[in-house]
Design brief:
The chain is of the alpha/beta class. The protein contains eleven helices and ten strands. The strands form two sheets. A five-stranded mixed sheet has the order 3-2-1-4-5, with helices on both faces. It has a five-stranded mixed sheet with strand order 8-7-6-9-10, sandwiched between helices. The chain is globular. The protein starts with 5 loop residues before the first strand and ends in an 18-residue tail after the last helix. Bound molecules: 5'-O-[(R)-(carboxyoxy)(hydroxy)phosphoryl]adenosine and zinc ion. The site of zinc ion (ZN) has 6 residues, from helix 4.
């Protein structure tokens, strides 16, 4: 294997402590994710101070497990990649400090990775044959972006949310419905028994452009439930989920048509949503588009995607300086 091919990836931007060993950006030798869900669940969301303390405790064992599982010793690695942002500053700092220290000890390059770009590279892991150009829908707890991927590292922003991110809407609605945290998987499960046509929730800006708005939908759910206290929770969950998915799918397909590409991929935690995956596949098939859906475990936060994006960045831009700091508000580098 040539230089800089086997990377250790580290991800600590939010509430998952993760490490992975990946070769050539596609061959996942190990991927360990330690979720802090139990620590944050009773607060109904991520508590930043608790998250960074937990990363400090968990990261050492998680990295050790990723190395043992991969069968690759630290001295055989070619580089160490870690998420530099966006995310919670205290959490990011833990992963960054560890990655730089390990890179120094092993005498290999350090690569700082943009978490949003990492979500995009999850598609390349599961579909090594995937090649730009394509349109990517990135839907996570903090972001909702429609991006034209002209080439590796060359992005054009087509649209984004003007208020809540899609995942944030899932989390807020789930909390209101008493379904717990994290809200996305809870709504996904609850919606299975509900009627998605029971309540006609608004589909904001459905026919306008590529931007999204989800805060009115969240308010519509709250208003409906307050007016109809006996409404079945699974019907509310299914109708809410249908409204979100209708907008995400319609805009993604329109963006692909507009960009003149026939490949669509998705990334981010909300890309694990069952209805979104099913509807996007159907809609793409109807248009003759190819649709790339990373496996669910590659959609939610993990370090394999960080190692994959790090491999591309290292090849294209070289190593990142060890003076690189955490960038909590980092954006996708778009043209
Ligand atoms: O990408 P991610 O793991 O972390 C961030 O970068 O934010 O995304 C987390 C988000 C949360 O809002 C969570 O509720 C949502 O992804 N999510 C889902 C599902 N699984 C996770 N949303 C809808 N359906 C799911 N199955
Ligand atoms: Zn994420």
């Amino acid at each position: 294997m040539s230089d800089a091919d086997v990377l250790l990836g580290i991800e600590t931007s939010c509430d998952e402590t993760a490490a992975a060993v990946v070769a050539r950006g596609v061959d996942v030798r190990s991927s360990v994710v330690s979720s802090q869900v139990d620590l944050h669940a009773r607060f109904g969301g991520v508590v930043p101070e608790i998250a960074s303390r937990a990363h400090v405790e968990l990261l050492g064992p998680v990295v050790a497990e990723a190395l043992v599982e991969s069968g690759v010793g630290g001295e055989d690695l070619d580089a160490v990649a870690a998420t530099v942002g966006p995310g919670l500053v205290g959490s990011l700092l833990v992963g960054l400090a560890a990655a730089k220290a390990l890179a120094l000890v092993w005498g290999v390059p350090f690569v700082g990775v943009n978490h949003l770009e990492a979500h995009l590279y999850a598609s390349f892991i599961d579909e090594p044959a995937l090649e730009p150009p394509m349109v990517a829908l990135l839907v996570s707890g903090g972001h909702t972006l429609l991006v034209a991927v002209d080439d590796h590292g060359r992005y054009r922003l087509l649209g984004s949310t003007i208020d809540d991110a899609a995942g944030e809407a899932f989390d807020k609605v789930a909390r209101f419905l008493g379904l717990g945290y994290p809200g996305g998987p809870a709504i996904d499960r609850t919606a299975l028994t509900g009627d998605p046509t029971a309540i006609d929730f608004p589909r904001a800006m459905l026919d306008q452009g590529y931007d999204f708005s989800f805060s009115g939908l969240k308010t519509a759910v709250v208003t409906h439930v307050r007016r109809h206290p006996d409404v079945a929770t699974d019907d509310v969950a299914a109708s809410f989920q249908q409204a979100v998915v209708d907008v995400l799918v319609a805009k993604t397909l329109r963006a692909a048509r507009h960009a003149g590409v026939s490949r669509v991929c998705i990334g981010g935690g909300v890309a694990a949503n069952s209805l979104l995956r099913e509807r996007l596949l159907d809609a793409c098939a109807g248009e003759g588009f190819e649709c790339f859906l990373p496996s669910r475990s590659m959609c939610t936060d993990n370090a394999a995607m960080v190692a994959a994006a790090g491999w591309w960045r290292l090849k294209n831009d070289g190593p990142t300086g060890l003076d690189a700091g955490a960038q909590p508000n980092l954006r996708l580098p778009v043209a």
